[in-house]
């Protein structure tokens, strides 16, 4: 099982565990802002055989780019609809706003359970 996480760079301040990830089933990619992720990139990640995708952004009102987290959340919702249409299921992708290592660990476990 492989899960890819696209994380807002600012999440590193709140979630230091991202830097120390040892889970071999999780690949972490840092973004300057979660809004930089595009629907096409999310879909191509699934085309490469990944089982699940997490997009991790700032909490609403904390984004340095003002509405970045809202843009990212909208792109994830759109991707969910597309995944349903092609038969992969919407549970394989999720947008998370996290503020601690514990929430990060819980989000990883949530995604692992979903894709099993």
Highest-level CATH class: Alpha Beta
Integer-rounded radius of gyration: 13 Å
Helix content: 25-40%
Do you know the CATH topology?
Answer: Rossmann fold
Main beta sheet: 4 strands, parallel
Folded structure, characterized:
With 116 residues, the protein is α/β, with parallel strands linked by helices. It has one domain: 3-Layer(aba) Sandwich (Rossmann fold), CATH 3.40.50. It has 4 helices and 4 strands, in the order βαβαβαβα. The protein has helices spanning 11-14, 39-47, 68-85, 101-115; strands at residues 3-8, 26-31, 52-57, 93-97. Strands 2-1-3-4 form a 4-stranded parallel beta sheet, sandwiched between helices. The longest helix is centred in the middle third of the chain and has 18 residues, at 68-85. The model has no long low-confidence stretch (mean pLDDT 86).
Features:
116 residues; alpha/beta; Rossmann fold; four-stranded parallel β-sheet; 4 helices; 40% helix; 20% strand
Structure in a nutshell:
It contains 4 helices and 4 strands; from the N terminus they run E-H-E-H-E-H-E-H. The chain has 116 residues and is α/β, with parallel strands linked by helices. It is globular and about 35 Å long.
């Amino acid at each position: 099982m492989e899960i890819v996480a696209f994380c807002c760079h600012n999440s590193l301040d709140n979630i230091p565990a991202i830097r120390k990830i040892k889970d071999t089933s999780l690949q972490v990619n840092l973004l300057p802002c979660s809004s930089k992720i595009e629907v096409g990139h999310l879909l191509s990640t699934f085309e490469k055989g990944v089982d699940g995708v997490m997009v991790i952004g700032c909490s609403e009102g904390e984004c340095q780019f003002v509405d970045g987290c809202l843009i990212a959340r909208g792109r994830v919702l759109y991707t969910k609809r597309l995944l349903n249409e092609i038969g992969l299921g919407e549970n394989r992708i999720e947008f998370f706003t996290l503020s601690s290592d514990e929430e990060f660990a819980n989000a990883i476990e949530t995604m692992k359970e979903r894709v099993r």
